[in-house]
Amino acid sequence: MDNRLKHDALIEDALNAHPLAPMPRSITPNVMARIQKDMRPGLITWNDFALSLVIALCVGALIFTVQSLPPILLAKLRIEGILLYQYFLVNARWLVPSLFFSIAAFLAALTIPTLIQMTTNRQR
Amino acid sequence: MSDNETTLIQKAQKGNHDAFAALVDEHQRYVYNLALRVVKDENEALDLTQETFVRAWTALPNFKGQSQFRTWLYRIVTNLCYNRLPNLRRSLNDLGDDVMEDIPETKFNTPADEFESNETRRHLHQAIENLDESYRLLISLRYQNELSYDEIAATLNLPLGTVKTGIFRAKAQLRNALAPLEESWTTA
Hints:
The complex is a heterodimer. By secondary structure, chain A is mainly alpha-helical.
């Protein structure tokens, strides 16, 4: 057997024969005590409730604000909106394709981790 | 995964504590040893093992059986090890993947070499303990927990080439550790 092969075989033997260390004590009682104390989180957690409450309050506040505005102010806002839109069409038309391109680039960037994952899985 | 284990997992997913205790009994030694090889401290390894099973209990309803239960546990414990050893993840990623060929795993059990083998084994076991933490993790998953290269790659979320490179380099370090011992053989 040549030297390199002998070394490889010795290393392989040592790796395969490396013994498992004994457990100093069983951890089962501790684990069971902890899982009986800590409840498993349900499908919907308190965080989900809190977040949905905040979103609902924001939406409610927006609707309430719009409805309580005086009609004259609403009409002015609508006119300002139309003027802004017209101004945009005349002076900043280039922004439309730029905006679409940015959104497309952003969405494409979101797929990069998945693509990397797929490539890695294919290599495996 | 045996039928018995599948049944235990299903029962534990529904909240059966006895079934989960049986799973803990079955797997704790392997999880503990993996943690011990990486962190090299008994108390810390016990703590990590306990935390692994508590997290496994919490996440068990999401376990869909796409991987083996044991590899799922190893993934949890390695993630906990990453938290304890921030350099571990980085050193694994820095391994690169320059070794892409299959690594031969030769067997050595000829009786004439038995004495030399026992002496060398002790020396090599010491050398394994002295490897870098990333190499110790890879070697433990491969030889102690008996995962395939693919399973290690999936467990650590690393490319297969990186896993092979890591194990190849770990073995190269062990080969270097043999050099002084070989000198003593030749002088004897």
